[in-house]
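Format is chain and fold; as here:
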Amino acid sequence: MKKLCIAAMLWLACLSWTPLAQALQMSLVPRGGYQISPGGLLVLDLNIAGLQSGGLNTELGVFHLDLYYDPTLLSFLPGAPSGWGTALGQTAGGAEALAFADASTPGLLRLDEMSLLDALTLDQLQGDSFRLATLAFHVLVPPKPAPANTILFADDILLADAGGNLIPVALDQVPLLILQVPEPGTLALLGLGMAALAWQRRRPPGRA
């Protein structure tokens, strides 16, 4: 966990030295809030914006990024609800796009997608902002002492247009997500409260 935090801070520092001539935005947006619970599900959307309004005026034909996370707390789920967006073409049931999600290295998810569509078709599919992928993780029981927060962030980002020409990546901010992890004591109290509520409802009327 400490290595993830240090890597994220170093990446933020490097980013501050980079001139942002053309701004892009990539974001990790969780569905259901910024707090996760052991045994639950974390579902987040990977979005991109600024291919048009950022001054680039280009379509996206290829993307790659590495997503880092804590493998002692999160386990990637390759099936639904994980899935790819459609702005680069359909990845199943046709030959519009090729996509790969490699989670073979603990704590690292490599995402690659390449469209097989031409620039004109992609321009019609894509707006200034769209979803690249939806990523789902099973939340594990954290080791003790449990962390108060956990971080997911993206690195090694590569973008290209339909012709394979590299798009300069000058992100407004690092795709980074900080989530809260409830303390085990809080979860235990919540469980006891729910159990008491269930017992209260089952208790026959008129009994103290």
Summary: The beta strands are 25-31, 41-49, 62-68, 74-77, 83-84, 97-105, 108-115, 129-139, 149-160, 176-180. The first helix runs from residue 2 to 16. Confidence is low (pLDDT under 50) at residues 2-21, 185-203.
